[in-house]
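User: Fold this; tokens only.

Assistant: Input:
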Amino acid sequence: MAINWDSVSALLIQLQSRAVEFGLRLVAAIAILVVGRWIAKQLRRTIKRAISRTPLDPNLVSFTSNLAEYGITAFVILAVLGQLGIETTSLLAVLGAAGLAVGLALQGSLSNFAAGLLIVFFHPFRVGDWIEGAGETGFVEDIQLLTTVIRTPDNRTVIIPNNNLMTNNIINYSAKGVLRMELVVGVAYSEDLDRVKAVIAQALEQDERILRDPEPVIGVMALADSSVNFTVRPWVRPEHYWPAYFAAYENIKKHLDAAGISIPFPQRDVYLYQRSERI
């Protein structure tokens, strides 16, 4: 069988032309990818610097800048695929169908993601706040797209799904910047009430963590069975709450002792009757 060298030569020329064309397309695609990624990173940094100068939440700044980078990167990838001759329309349809299937399988994660967006945009709490939610209490260490990380007073790390927080009540102890402590101090009925109030006020003044404005409230709360009970309500910063709480009771006790004011405790008088029996 004779070989048609003219046909082989034409085929080689065609393959060479196709290879050169594909090589040029590949070089152009790589260039688009490199330049596009550089533009995406620069845009992220620019947006982050610009938004950082505004009084927006830091989590919103990070989320917006990252979202801009991912969006530009997605367009760059589509441009690279188009440059390589890949039909992006059918690819997008396949990706859309796959995304729908994955979305149905990950409904819980999507609800946590949506809750994370609500936290980022509406910030019911911020990093560093002392909150109570989903049955846990602690300081917020990190707000992620799916979970929120808090540190409890006993130094445990608790990771809470965002949806659990947003579908339950959230108590933000740090939102107003100050918290009110409530102490109960009982003294004997025989003590002078005005003198007791003055001694308690003096004890509170010894702690710099207790705020002068708002002014502490000291008043008689109840006339109990064995004592006159005072309610003591000083104000502190959220981060000082527990140290100041414990110190307040200790200082009040020491000042009452130094002033000779007695703190009664429940007592019960027992009377014994002896009955003589006749035989």
